Amino acid sequence: MNEYAKSKINRVKRGHNRATYDVEKINSILDAGFLCYVGYIYEGNPITIPMAYANKNDKVYIHGSTANRMLLSILESKKTSITITHLDGLVLARSGLHHSVNYRSATLFGSLKKIENDIEKTKILGSIVNQMMPNQWDSLRPMYQKELDRTLVLEFTIEKASAKIRDVGVIDEPEDYKLPIWAGVVPIKQVAEFPISDKGIPSKMDIPKHILDYYDQNK
Q1: Element housing 27 (H / E)
Q2: Domains of the chain listed by start with CATH number
Q3: Residue 32: CB partners within 8 Å, gap ≥ 6?
Q4: How far is CA 174 from the centre of its chain?
Q5: What is the pTM assigned to this prediction?
Q6: Each residue of 27-62: pLDDT tens digit?
Q7: End-to-end CA distance of the chain, in Å?
């Protein structure tokens, strides 16, 4: 089993029994989403921003405007942390204290670099789009040079990481199991609804197969 090395920064202390450092399990959490949360410091203030991402091996790619203060801040510091979380269930216990959620969460630590080459930038932007909707990029018009020039793409190399996973039911106090109070888990999942065509030409077109496939797999 290939694991990220444990250190002071990525070692899980609270709920360590739910922790994993397994590279494959952490990658599965990254593969399951397309939104991450990026932390940075701006003028002494801690801020967290949601961002679309793509991941490949030990790299995570994010992008934004060349004037984006978060991207510029983390590029200057050359370090950041990124978190991806999936909510899988509401755990309803017999007492308020023991309410919880089932979830998969990965926190990544690493270094950054700016992608300069336009061909590489374009390929990465395609990966970000395809992480959101598989096979979407090849159906789009090519990017204009002015769009590439205004876009900042950063490569984040994962150096350390950890994940926490809760996938069990209610854990109540022993004496509470005799109480006549309903307890259990409400499973939660993100679903896709039927695609809605944009106005104009798309309203007269058949919905592309790869989008209908995504709908069928996630409805």
Answers
A1: helix 23-31
A2: 16-188 (2.30.110.10), 191-219 (no CATH)
A3: 86, 104
A4: 36
A5: 0.91
A6: 999 999 999 999 999 888 999 999 999 999 899 999
A7: 34
